[in-house]
Amino acid sequence: MDLKAPSLKPKAFSITRIDLLVYAALAAIVVFAVAIRLLPLQWGVYLDEFDPYIQYKGAQYIVENGFNAWYTWFDPTRWAPWGASQFEQGLLGTPFTGAAAYMFLTSLGMNVSLLDVCAFFPVFAGAIIAVLAFFLGKQLVNRGIGLLTAFVFAVDPTSIQRTALGFFDTESTGMMGMFIALIFFVKSLKSRTIPYAIISGLGMAYMALCWRAFLYPINFIALFVVVMVLMGKWSRRLTTSFTIIASITLFAIIVTPSYGIGTAISAYTVGPIVAVLVCLLRSFTEMIPDVAKRQRYTIGIVLGTLTVFGILTLTGVFGDITGKFLAIINPFSRAGIGYVTTVGEQFPAIWSHFFTTYHVLILLVPVGIIFALRRNRVEDLFVVLFVLTALYGGGSFVRLLILAAPAVAIVAGLALTNLMSRVGVVLRQQVDKKSRGALLSKYYGVFVIAVVMLAMVPVAYDNLSNANRPAMIVSASTGAAVEIPDWIEALAWMHANLPEDTIVASWWDYGYWINVMANLSVVDDNSTWNSTQIQKVAEAFLNNESVSVEIFKTMNASYVVVYEPFQLIYNNPPLALPITSLKGDFEKSEAMMVWIGYNASDYISYVSLGSGYSWPLPAGPKAANTTLYQLLFYPYITGYKTLLNVTITPPTMYTPVFISSNGWVMVYRIL
């Protein structure tokens, strides 16, 4: 009898050639993703777009005052003269992440600035998300689909924009949380339910602290849970996992000042509450021995619960769904929500958006859905619901196309996998044993390469070209791949020449830039939370000087900033036309009219330029004495009158104190 103790030596770690190829490909994809996102570096290190500036300001406040200071932060420089409670309006996740990353790097002795950390963090996040996209695809289908998912995320234009150098905003942090939540939720349904569910819940909670779009994944998973129960695929793992995830997420919402218990128990979170309740009620039906009878009771429980909570939601017991969230759920409601129709990132996506983004992959989505439904596994049903809900959200708001990228890649990859396997079967049936191997390797390899190249090369090429541009502030808010110094000049001049207690009025698009970069107080900004203040600014700009000065006086504003990209077409007298495709304040005056219900035909008319050409200009019956047009077109008033017979009255209650080198940004002092 052998009494020798069994060996406790762990098994030797082994890695196959396929493993090496897969992870080498993943590493190459990550490097490629980082390289794309660093393309703007050639123009310098700047924050991009607008929202990253307020996130940077939040991180700066935390670095200077500590994390606890966030919870009492009142900022008098925003929405002047009223000020703003930043801890109640803003989410803490992104600025906390930026501040923590900066403190960590400096503790290691690295000489970095907070601005550099915030500018480069999205690139780091993009690399991490690409890896997480691989593991999501791997968890739901296989490693091949994981690589395709990672690659699609690497070249997806929405993903590139939101994780490129300088885009330090909610997506670059929140998407990491979402992927962690989805990956570990799926894993929790297979093994180690409680540990994986806790990680998933923490990922979802982190996303909630960073980005209000967490409402999509938490409600998506809730929908998946309810569908599983209805289809007879309920399990104790499902109940345990989702209950843990929902509990952690709702707790994080309750203790976050900008959410609170009012959000945790609201129309926005009815989905996860119903899903938990359905799972708990379903668990009681396990006492019914007859399977068919148990399923009938289950269907009755689910439908009854959905009916009760549906009635309670529709009658307003949980409050109303409003604003952009209502526009996402019900696209037909957006016409009645003024500000939603005036913000570019909130426009609905059309078919061309999907096709130019995903090319052939979007055509493979229906095929992938059919294959998934035929297999009818839990992972397949998860994938189908994932892609349908993500495409619906992206169709409602173009900004949410970033959520659709992994879903499209996984479903399209599923379609490719099944189509290629069927080609292999056909070939095996049609050739004899002697020549089968050669033909299979030849045709199968050519088919795979052709399909992948057809699907991905146009996507990568187009999106690589679009990513090669500087930060918006460098290109004077045009998005062009060229340096245009007007906004940098104007902000530098204001920072150097205006007193720190100056209150500046402008359209809300430029509020963050003026507040953070010029270090001045602003009457409105990109958070657009005070619609009354925005309407007042619109009224000031679209009325005569007496009215506008009176309105700005109530806000204690002493300077006004206006912006319009002009193209000079005549020198003597000077005449310049607004470049309408670049959306300056003249074009945005139509959005101002939407905010306050004015008629565009009273202000803008098409004027003949000769040779059959006409141009939208401030030539409506009310345009001549409209404050905004007086300020914008002041340098060209003579040219418009003598050459185009368009009358614009010179301003008498505003005086220009700064005009940028191209004449695009003008600063006026209110007399």
Descriptive report:
With 671 residues, this protein is an alpha+beta fold. Helices cover 59% and strands 7% of the residues. The chain is built from 27 helices and eleven strands. Strand 1 and strand 2 form a beta hairpin. Helix 11 packs antiparallel against helix 13. The longest helix has 35 residues, at 433-467. It is globular, with a radius of gyration of 29 Å.
Describe the global form.
globular
Distance between the termini: 105 Å
Q: From the coordinates shown, what is the CATH architecture of the largest domain?
A: 3-Layer(aba) Sandwich
Classification by helices and strands: alpha+beta
Instruction: Work out the radius of gyration.
Output: 29 Å
Q: What's the tally of helices?
A: 27
Low-confidence stretches: 1-8
Mean pLDDT: 85
Strand order of the largest sheet: 4-3-5-11-10
Give the C-level CATH assignment of the largest domain.
Alpha Beta
Q: What is the CATH fold-level name of the largest domain?
A: Rossmann fold
Main beta sheet: strand number and arrangement? Answer: 5 strands, mixed
| Percent of residues in helices | 55-70%
Query: How many domains, as an integer?
Result: 4
Tally of extended strands? Answer: 11
Give the percentage of residues in beta strands. 5-15%
